[in-house]
């Protein structure tokens, strides 16, 4: 088995192989549904080839930036287009590609990588852990009456937005620049969010990148007319449903205004908000708390740490404390014991031979890294071992994020 990097000349064979792996028929790479492939960086992809040179596996990586807790922005390769032909599965092709790719990422100086998993059973063995989560919230319009917002009379807490800005429907052609700018402001402040390279927007201006269907777009502007949020949505069956793909808001009041706009839409019987983070405040803003039905609760962004000290010192921290972490990395055959010391929002992470507070697999460290999974959950689940009774409580306080991490980018 040979794993080799690809060039632009390999695009067709790469797309052909990954389509076969996903059970789809080839499309013309730069048109229609094949558009997605034109966003690939061919110099960040690999092909797995049999001894006689037949391509049987593919893997790639996008060059993203990831926002960490504390609004630190770091490079994050986004692993994508992973597939092995059905005829060559369970023979170690993916394992060989993952080993090659992780080595290559380290050689480039990356200290973490991320992906979206087609199945939750695939990537844990390679050191990835689920780190952000997503849900759908469905609200029947006849039950969408707003709750009076108790704090709004006395404080600057979220209000309906009407008095604080405006909502405007845009023609989808030509609004890409505004959306790109709003998305960029949003993702820089949102832990777990990924950058969207300019060419993604250029490919499909006015729609969530790489969305095949037409979308309506509403933009929210602040009192000075500056765009500070948008929602992209479509109308259709079943039962005259309005489906919001993305609600991008630079603060909570903007989300409220956009949500009110779609919930007031005539000729619609229900509104589906896709990609909301768990425990989203929208349900609290409805007079009928039970009107918002949660579904599609699942993992979204998976994180893999490649250099534990660099990763831990890169993010911001919101409580002081000290923990000794004993980290196993079975796939790469590595082990490290780290003293993590947090003071005034910054961490120091050095090797130590002190007794550990927590023993954990690198995949579990990936899960807790962005603050979206409490270490105590994984202690109670039986994955992380706490060596003293208060270690999990301290770890929960330390790994917490200033804002719950969330990612809605699909790649
Ligand atoms: C980031 C992304 O692109 S996600 C998209 C992933 N791709 C797909 O879902 C496309 C359809 N599936 C495939 O192409 C293949 O089945 C792949 C890529 C998931 C797996 O490739 P393979 O070459 O079969 O994997 P490989 O042989 O290296 O398996 C390594 C181990 O993972 C296990 N494994 C592989 N795939 C799966 C799976 N889908 N579910 C559970 N376990 C799996 C194997 O059993 C093996 O376990 P072992 O080490 O205990 O024996």
From TrEMBL:
<feature type="active site" description="Proton donor">
    <location>
        <position position="123"/>
    </location>
</feature>
<dbReference type="InterPro" id="IPR016181">
    <property type="entry name" value="Acyl_CoA_acyltransferase"/>
</dbReference>
<dbReference type="InterPro" id="IPR025559">
    <property type="entry name" value="Eis_dom"/>
</dbReference>
<comment type="subunit">
    <text>Homohexamer; trimer of dimers.</text>
</comment>
<feature type="binding site">
    <location>
        <begin position="90"/>
        <end position="95"/>
    </location>
    <ligand>
        <name>acetyl-CoA</name>
    </ligand>
</feature>
<dbReference type="InterPro" id="IPR051554">
    <property type="entry name" value="Acetyltransferase_Eis"/>
</dbReference>
<dbReference type="Pfam" id="PF13530">
    <property type="entry name" value="SCP2_2"/>
</dbReference>
<dbReference type="Pfam" id="PF17668">
    <property type="entry name" value="Acetyltransf_17"/>
</dbReference>
<dbReference type="InterPro" id="IPR022902">
    <property type="entry name" value="NAcTrfase_Eis"/>
</dbReference>
<feature type="active site" description="Proton acceptor; via carboxylate">
    <location>
        <position position="411"/>
    </location>
</feature>
<feature type="domain" description="N-acetyltransferase">
    <location>
        <begin position="1"/>
        <end position="152"/>
    </location>
</feature>
<dbReference type="Pfam" id="PF13527">
    <property type="entry name" value="Acetyltransf_9"/>
</dbReference>
<dbReference type="InterPro" id="IPR041380">
    <property type="entry name" value="Acetyltransf_17"/>
</dbReference>
<comment type="similarity">
    <text>Belongs to the acetyltransferase Eis family.</text>
</comment>
<keyword id="KW-0808">Transferase</keyword>
<feature type="binding site">
    <location>
        <begin position="118"/>
        <end position="119"/>
    </location>
    <ligand>
        <name>acetyl-CoA</name>
    </ligand>
</feature>
<dbReference type="InterPro" id="IPR036527">
    <property type="entry name" value="SCP2_sterol-bd_dom_sf"/>
</dbReference>
<keyword id="KW-0012">Acyltransferase</keyword>
<dbReference type="InterPro" id="IPR000182">
    <property type="entry name" value="GNAT_dom"/>
</dbReference>
<protein>
    <submittedName>
        <fullName>GNAT family N-acetyltransferase</fullName>
    </submittedName>
</protein>
<feature type="binding site">
    <location>
        <begin position="82"/>
        <end position="84"/>
    </location>
    <ligand>
        <name>acetyl-CoA</name>
    </ligand>
</feature>
């Amino acid at each position: 088995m040979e794993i080799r990097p690809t060039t632009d000349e390999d695009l067709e064979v790469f797309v052909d192989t990954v389509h076969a792996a996903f059970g789809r028929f080839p499309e013309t790479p730069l048109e229609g549904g094949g558009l997605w492939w034109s966003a690939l960086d061919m110099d960040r992809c690999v092909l797995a080839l049999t001894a006689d040179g037949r391509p049987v596996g593919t893997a790639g990586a996008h060059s993203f930036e990831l926002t960490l807790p504390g609004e630190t922005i770091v490079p994050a390769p986004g692993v994508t287009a992973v597939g092995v032909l059905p005829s060559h599965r369970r023979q170690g092709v993916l394992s060989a590609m993952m080993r090659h790719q992780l080595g290559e990422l380290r050689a480039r100086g990356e200290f973490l990588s991320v992906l979206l998993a087609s199945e939750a059973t695939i990537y844990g063995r390679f050191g990835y852990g689920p780190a952000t989560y997503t849900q759908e919230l469905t609200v029947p319009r006849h039950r969408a009456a707003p709750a009076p917002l108790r704090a709004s009379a006395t404080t600057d807490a979220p209000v309906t937005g009407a008095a604080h800005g405006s909502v405007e429907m845009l023609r989808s052609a030509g609004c890409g620049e505004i959306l790109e700018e709003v998305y960029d402001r949003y993702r820089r402040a949102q832990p777990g969010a990924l950058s969207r390279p300019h060419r993604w927007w250029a490919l499909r201006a006015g729609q969530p990148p790489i969305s095949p269907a037409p979308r309506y777009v509403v933009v929210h502007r602040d009192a000075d007319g500056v765009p500070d949020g948008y929602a992209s949505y479509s109308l259709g069956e079943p039962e005259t449903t309005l489906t919001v793909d993305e609600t991008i808001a630079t603060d909570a009041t903007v989300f409220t205004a956009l949500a009110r706009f779609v919930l007031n839409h005539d000729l619609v019987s229900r509104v589906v908000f896709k990609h909301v983070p768990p425990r989203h405040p929208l349900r609290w803003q409805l007079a009928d708390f039970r009107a918002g039905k949660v579904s599609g609760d699942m993992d979204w962004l998976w994180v893999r740490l490649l250099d534990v000290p660099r990763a831990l010192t890169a993010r911001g921290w919101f409580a002081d404390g000290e923990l000794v972490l004993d980290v196993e990395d079975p796939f790469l055959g590595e082990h490290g014991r780290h003293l993590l010391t947090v003071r005034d929002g910054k961490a120091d992470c050095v090797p130590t031979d002190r007794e550990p507070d927590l023993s954990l697999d690198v995949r579990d460290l990936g899960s807790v890294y962005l603050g979206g999974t409490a270490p105590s959950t994984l202690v109670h689940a039986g994955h992380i071992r706490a060596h003293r009774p208060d270690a999990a409580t301290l770890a929960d306080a330390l790994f917490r994020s200033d804002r719950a991490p969330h990612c809605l980018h699909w790649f």
